Amino acid sequence: MVEHDTTGNPPAQEALINVPESIQDGLAVSPVEAQMLVASVMQDAQDWKNARSRLESTWQQCWEAYMCDIKSLYTQPGQDTPDRSKIARPVLYESVEAIHAFLMNTLLPADEQFFSVIGQSEADHEKAKLIEAYLRNKLQEAGFYEKYSVFLKQAIITGNSVAAVPWRRKTRKSRTRQPITLFGVTVGTQKRDTETVVYDGPDFEVLDMFDFLIDPNEPDFEKATVIRKLERSLNDLRRAGVYHNLEGLTAQVEPEDARKSARRQAFGIADAGLDAASHRQQRVTLHEAWGDFYIGDKVFENYVCVIANGNRLIRFEPNPYDCGMKPFIFTTLIPVPNEVYGIGAIEKSLGLQHAINTLTNQKLDVINISINNPFTYLINDDVFDPETIVTRPGALIPVKSHDTLRPIQYLNNFTVAFNEIADLKEEINQATGAFKFLTGDAAQMSNRTATEISAMISGGNQKFSSFTKHLENTSLEPMLKLVFEQARQFLSRPETFLMPTDYTGQQFVTLLPDLIQSATCRFKIVGSEATLLRTQELTALFEFIRLTQADPALREQVDMLELYKKLYRRLGFRDEAQVFNTLLAQAELGGA
User: Fold this and answer.
1) Smallest Cα–Cα separation from 52: which of 291, 213, 221, 224?
2) Cα separation, 62 vs 350, whole angstroms
3) Which residues pair with 176 in a beta bridge?
4) What is the pLDDT of residues 321-345, one digit of tens each?
């Protein structure tokens, strides 16, 4: 059984260039223009990479701090002494995890839907509920929630994150036995190869920021040209059906980026295994560019250009997506005015983390020296032999004079170091916003007044509120728009899926391609508001039930069973049909 991707227009489709005079099929440029295009794109890639060199260095330091990479911190000359402490405190790691958990619970709250679909007209709005259920089902099939968690963590650590959102159509070839009939009688079976569609929908592929370049001169991502570096096998390129000029193309991969390699090593993966021929054979390095291209006096607006091995154009065509959007989602955590790249949560605290590491290791070294005191001795004492002396309880050391051995005294007051480390950790919490109050750390609250705690929580929530609104507007909403537009373009057969209903749990429904193709919708992100709205609605429901129970005349006008069902569902339960049908059956039996 073979599984392959037959997607016609994924963002991960690449192309190679170095166009011989005789090969021009599928490329809307002449050989000379193709060479100019290749040179221009590769020069842009080099220039944009150099322009953000210092930024990538900061990203690398942030990854090292998050992973507590001891090797990167203690490789300087003179620091390889085996008896010196080499500890990396996980302060920024804790900050990242606290911020990540808070933002994930806010953006994608459990048991709540993080978006709603709103039709642009009355007719569209009637279709919106079915379209909303379809999009939720496809996102779950694509593993969006787990992948967005990785996407968000990269944004917190580096301040920037990017994901490809293509439309994938995967088919699987299998061999089945089918009956052979003769005059209506089965006389045997024969094997036949069949191909079935196993997935037809959106994908969400988190990309490495080190492999994704954005024009630094254009702060608006929607307008900026982007270049993605990746690897694909020759077989994948031939099978995709959108690449040309593949004749004579040879497998060739570039050395892995030094900073990516360092990050992998910090994670415990050696370079030797990654660069081995058995792991990267028959693969080609691709540079995939999306945006506007200029060749002489010609302008190619919103095109996709793919270059293989840095010298061969294999794809150059208009953006294959009808919506005209680039199939990428890019966001920042803390945006910088007039800049395309943003700032991460821990970037400005790297120096504080290094100071904590230094003080911690110095403190451990002093403790170690205090426990195992060094001594001075007189070299002309012909009785004392330093080569045979081992310090241990009850040991006797022969000396000519008691002044022969003298311990070296060190400062044993460690309180100063502890206080300084506590102050630095507090400053990191203030800088990152990862207050322990958000995680319920009672020890951190014990030395604060109620007013201080309330003020700090309020300030932290305001900071994270700006994060969530920015992430919703720059990642979740564009992603939904892109998926919706792709579904309008590529959905070609009816989709049947389970759809939740108000009171009966779930039921199977079918969405026809015509329905989504004829609808015009917009999206409202409600994840960050869901918990608050749920609490407010529950409070209002309980109050209404109390008023209804207190007023017999009002109670006669209200269907209390339906009201209780609504309350039951808002509490988070999804089996009201089973629970309330049982109650009704018991009531009927009792009445009989």
Assistant:
1) 213
2) 7
3) 192
4) 999 999 999 999 999 999 999 999 9
